[in-house]
Amino acid sequence: MRVKKTTADESPASTDPNTKRLATMQKRARVVRSTALWRCSLFLVFAIAAFAIAVAPNCFGASQTGQRIEGKVVDQAGAPVVGAAITLRQDAQASTATSDDEGRFSFDGSQRRGSLRLTVTAEGFGTFDRELTSSDLTGALMVTLQPAPLSDAISTTAARTETRVGDTPASLIILPAADLTTTPALVLDDKLRQVPGFSLFRRSGSRTANPTSQGVSLRGVGASGASRAVVLADGIPLNDPFGGWIYWGREPVERIKRVEIVQGGESSLYGSDALGGVINIIERNPRDSAISGSFSGGNESTWNASMFASGVLKGWAIKVGVEALHTDGYVLVDDDQRGTVDTPAGVEYSTTDLQLERLLGDQGRVFIGGSIFSEDRKNGTPLQTNDTYIRQLDAGLDWQPANLGSFVLRGYGGSQVFDQDFSAIAANRNSETLTRSQRVPAGQSGFTLQWSRAAGSRQTLVAGVDGREVHGASDEIIFVAGKATSAVGAGGRERFLGVFAQDLIQITPRWLVSLGLRGDRWRHFDALSTTRTFATGAQTVTVFPERIKTAFDPRASVMYKAADNVSVYVSGYRAFRAPTLNELYRAFRVGNVLTLANDKLEAERLTGGEAGVAVDTLSRRVNVRGTFFWSELTRPIANVTLSVTPALITRQRQNLGRTRSRGVEVETSARVSPTVTITGGYQFVDATVLRFPANPALEGLQIPQVPRHIFTFQARYSDPHILTVAVQGRASSKQFDDDQNLLPLDGYFSLDAYVSRRLVRGIEVFGAFENLTNQRYQVGRTPVVTLGPPILARGGVRLAFGRQ
Fold it and tell me: Do the Cβ atoms of 325 and 187 come closer than 8 Å?
């Protein structure tokens, strides 16, 4: 580290314009040189996309015309199955269709001779596969789908290639669209709380929480502002490039097909951000024109609109996803501690995502798109506000050439600005003064290239490479007694490059082995901080040394199928997470708690394992899975208390010595009848600090923000001819808001309900109710106790037209 102090006469403010212009040009040149390789990589992805779009019409055959085959897809109760994928095969040719909102489908093809085979698949149902007879062609086909057991569902997350859930030696949870739609919660992070191991930094959700506290944690590895799990949408990470938290409103809910969650270290496939697991948002990808939307309004001046539309014509597709939300919110502080500065915490955001796609016949697709997200928040007092603006471009290719395997290519890049103001609040909470005003510009670019292929009938190979570069800074104005006194800036750049490979081997019909290995290299560079005092003009510049680190993360899993409906697996793995630019260089304040940055932070390293058993019983209508897990985290980054005064608690991000999270989780799902399903989950986790030589007083204490017990359940009755009713609940035991375990948060129980009724084809009305018991449970202590929401109620209408 080099520190240079300058006098007022030497400060940048007193230099002549030519000198400043030269310095600016030199800085831009350095930035251009450092990012040239990554921009070239991103340009290559877009070039491939443009080339494929241009030449695709000449490379793939046109559709057939002629004989018409029609049919309808229904479930056991006779209700239409919307969005089923239908494939009609003859020899090497195949035609595809999607069932519409009445379950109907049709094929227009040339006069066919020989055998025809019809395959129908739909999420939540078993596969229908049958060779058609001549009698099938004389009238409309009626295809009845049977509910599929969870083990037969297909996942693309745990192995980065399509695998059956029953063949996945990992803790995998799939939330289909039906579960997400009938969840009363309005925003995605609250919908995911039906998973016991899912939590944000605090109990509050993104409707009221500051974005910097929306980092996601899985399975008790410890919550933080930065996520300890990667969140993906169509293979592109949603984790904030500067701070690692998640803007949950960036993905329109109407565009989501399902969400797949893998708990446990997944760095062997996904790198740094997947230390605790992966949350993969699978987007809808209809091959026909369709439009759907939901519109609702409720108390606290809350309104929401989410829409998705797709249009397909002659092999071209355009997709648009839009979502907007506004809520005035509620006052976070309890009545007996509230003052005149306490105002509702609310949010208003909008997101727009546009994608142009070229279908490559049955071999894949190529696309290019862009998105814009903006958000404005009120954080509970007049002076505490923040806003965010994000722009991103992405492109990709999914290609399955004959006999060569499957290729997936993604490229993305974007920029963003995050502004936030902090204040100090008087003890009586009747006044506040501005303490910091921050602006955080940041950007990133990255790519992923993956190949997978079946090698024989019992082996699947997966390999790939990915990379990402992030740059960002925190520029602050410091206020004392309401007067601006100094300017502080800090930031830098990070570059990641990883190579991964995995081999899935079915040794025998009952034994499955998975072996994976990944190598990562990351670099912190161009990092510095500056401080300038306004009164004297003196400036201090600190240049941080460049750091280069590597990590190797293996994973090995074995699954044994003791019977057709019983499987046992065991896994062991290593994982890591590099500190974010936010943790290294940006301080923040919540209430009267100030958390300082630490430029000396090291990467976190996780060693863990798990063993589980899954059972399908009662004719495979009931699935039960139990898992024991254990993980030890060396050098975990935690907010360590430095000092406590009546007016201010000061903490700093530091690497602890070692923490351990171990426990059990049990999940069950049951189809009681074609119209009734019940799911539930329980997690017990013992998360403690094992070693911290710098402060032994923390050893043996509970990791902050991790409760020992979490229980969730959901019961749903759904008959499209009558009514859909869903009830869900979540219970959590006591947890602590601080490292010293001095600020406890009481346990709580929350109950929600949802009801909907179909009016006519494609239109239904619904009502959603959150926290029916109106229990204002504790979500934080800063050190003033802040509370969760009161009862939230809204009503709305949902539309769906075309082939979904």
Answer: yes
Return the SS3 of 178: helix
Strands 649-655 and 593-596: parallel
CB 325 within 8 A of CB 303: yes
Q: How far apart are alpha carbons 632 and 609 in whole angstroms?
A: 9
Of 460, 458, 438, which is closest to residue 450 (Cα–Cα)? 460
CA 43 to centroid of chain Cα atoms: 26
C-alpha–C-alpha distance, residues 252 and 325, integer Å: 11
For residues 576 and 39, is the Cβ–Cβ distance under 8 A? no
Which tokens hold the place of 7?
């006098």
Both structure tokens of 135: 């009698």
Tokens of 445: 């670019």
The single-letter code of the amino acid at 294 is S
Note the pLDDT tens digit of each residue in 605-644: 999 999 999 999 887 889 999 999 999 999 999 999 999 8
Amino acid at 379: N
| 441 backbone dihedrals φ, ψ, rounded to 5° | -80, 140
Higher pLDDT, 60 or 212: 212
pLDDT tens-digit profile of 112-146? 556 788 899 887 777 888 888 777 776 778 888 87
Amino acid identity, residue 291?
A: I
- The percent helix, strand, coil of the chain (3-state, each to 5) is 10, 60, 30
Question: Nearest 5°: CA angle at 748, between 743 and 754?
Answer: 140
Quick one: tokens of 636?
């975990």
Q: List the one residue out of 726, 707, 589, 592 whose CA is nearest residue 646.
A: 592
